[in-house]
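Request from the bench team (R.T.):
"We need a structural guess for the complex before ordering more manganese (II) ion. Sequence and SMILES attached. Just send the tokens back."

Command: build protein-manganese (II) ion structure.
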Amino acid sequence: MPRTSRSIPREAPLPDAGVQSEGFRETRKARRGALVEDYVELIADLIDDGNEARQVDIAARLGVAQPTVAKMLARLAVDGLVSRKPYRGVFLTEAGRKVADESRARHRVVEDFLRSLGVSEEVARIDAEGIEHHVSAETLEAFRKAMTRGR
Amino acid sequence: MPRTSRSIPREAPLPDAGVQSEGFRETRKARRGALVEDYVELIADLIDDGNEARQVDIAARLGVAQPTVAKMLARLAVDGLVSRKPYRGVFLTEAGRKVADESRARHRVVEDFLRSLGVSEEVARIDAEGIEHHVSAETLEAFRKAMTRGR
DNA sequence: GAAAAAATTGAGCCTATGCTATAATTCTAT
DNA sequence: ATAGAATTATAGCATAGGCTCAATTTTTTC
Ligand SMILES: [Mn+2]
Ligand SMILES: [Mn+2]
Ligand SMILES: [Mn+2]
Ligand SMILES: [Mn+2]
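Reply to R.T.: structure attached below.
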């Protein structure tokens, strides 16, 4: 049986457990996809910048060790997002390029939106790096509209 | 040596590797803290709603198995955020209450802000659940101001 | 006051992401 | 052409966060 409590009640009632758990499940899924998106987007950036996308560069930019990158690239290859020529850098497949382009577009909107709210460049860069993976199509569209409306 | 490429160049130049990796490092740190925040916030919600915060309820609301919750609660206890009376539910320590209050306040601002942009209730709830953990103090303040300005 | 139901605990397993250390390979200079 | 530098590959290990299944303990119900 429920017990009484001296604590201040929440403003809103607790959402239905099924509804709430669905939200948490979605969030965990987004979290799992985040790393893949960051890798693929970064690889596209390196390639489009005119360089090869080498493990050492990816590692340096992500701030992880090179074997960590090697392992993830193997997984991305299995998933059909990248192809590798041994000792030659990594390339995006058609599917990988698609993921990269979409991630990059979304990332850009999020970062630009934060900047449009007056957030500093440094903080916008860091926050956007995490926020981007949790922004749905609907929210992304709302960000776009707000930037248009805002001037 | 850099090789030429037929690809479209990025709009902005690649950021400095050190700067970029710092952003990714920060993001990974936020990701690690996210789960703790969700637990503590949910525990506070259950308690403040007048119920005990039992493992089964926490599990149902997070959408994970109960032993998963048991393991995390043990960790939260070690971290000094909760205390447990065996078979009696979990309680927040003073430190835990502080984390919960801060997380809840931030969560609310993020969700309200999304709603203020016209995002639907369901989507705002899901997106906020992930976004909240990547919103710095500066960005949070920008969200608050935008809501005030906006009307 | 037992039997049944509910909840917690514990063991063992798995995957994802990290790491370090070292070997193997390729590239670059001389 | 070979030595040295750079890069990639491989092996082994650790931690976080999940899971299932079964044992234990507490609480409820009759
Ligand atoms: Mn990105
Ligand atoms: Mn990112
Ligand atoms: Mn929250
Ligand atoms: Mn959350």
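Two things stood out. Confidence is low (pLDDT under 50) at residues 1-9 of chain B. The pocket of manganese (II) ion (ligand 1) is lined by residues A 37-38, 41, 103, 107, 132 (CB under 6 Å).
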